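Quick one:
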Amino acid sequence: MNGPSPGGEGERVVEQASAWVESPLQMLCAVEAHHAGLLGPATAVVPRAGLRPLKATRKELRRLGLPEGLELAEPRDQMPRRVQAVGDAFSGKVQLRWLISNPGRIVIVDDGLATIRLLELLAAGPRRPLLRARAQPTKLRAVLGLAAALRLRLSKVSVFTALDVDKDLEDGVRRAGVDLVRHDFAWLRAQPPSAEGPAERTVVLGTSLVRNGLVHRDRYLRWLTDLASQEPVAYYPHRREDPVDVALIRERPGITVHDAGAPAELTLRGLDSGQRVLSLPSTAITSLRVLLSPRGVAVEPVDVPDDWWTSRAAPALRSHLTGVSG
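Output:
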């Protein structure tokens, strides 16, 4: 994905950076990273093929008009040979690519809750393998995660995020030689508002906590049903939400399900003062507050009652989830 810029003989050759994205938020944050100048004057954002939410996000971003020098490339099954920016630092494919390509400079764009996990591991030192929370890796996978952590120590690494990061954690990350770059969706905030939001006063963001086995399904559905009995609700499913659960929610009186596909940061920009967004613990609360608070829209975290949590939700995980969304 590297090549010269168009033009006559003698013009400067522009190196085109590649960003590999596998989620709508990663795609949006790759655009913001390019706008912020982290990736150089030319960037190709390459989405992983076969993911419907990425297709919807790509379409919406193109409708807005992209920053100069940015290309939304065609979806691909495989990562580019050399990739400068990624979202999922815990992907085995990404880690293997780092080891065989010697990238030198790596930009990791925001990937929601996984970003905090990554920062904690980076701050803890190079002997902590890059593995997902609650992962039960094979020995070979653990070795790859450790090798990836060591590779990052030998590279110039920037983590680009809009999340609130505790000062102690931020200091630890910087001591580890990692550049933590904060952003506030400057490019997206400068774009004209999207189409009008839903008519309902209350918008609920879907959650992956049920499908991940951390929250009881019946408690969550009962809460939604009770909420919709008081007022109409617009429901935006999480991209990893179980389709069976979404179908059940769609049948509830008073709930309108919006299959937006694109991330909430894009689809909810048209909300007006007087409307509100409710969400179980999610890093989307932070980003939506940045985007919607100036419009007078309240973004409210919903506390998870103790009896909602399953036995798989350890106290440390519950505290972690509450901390990143409060």
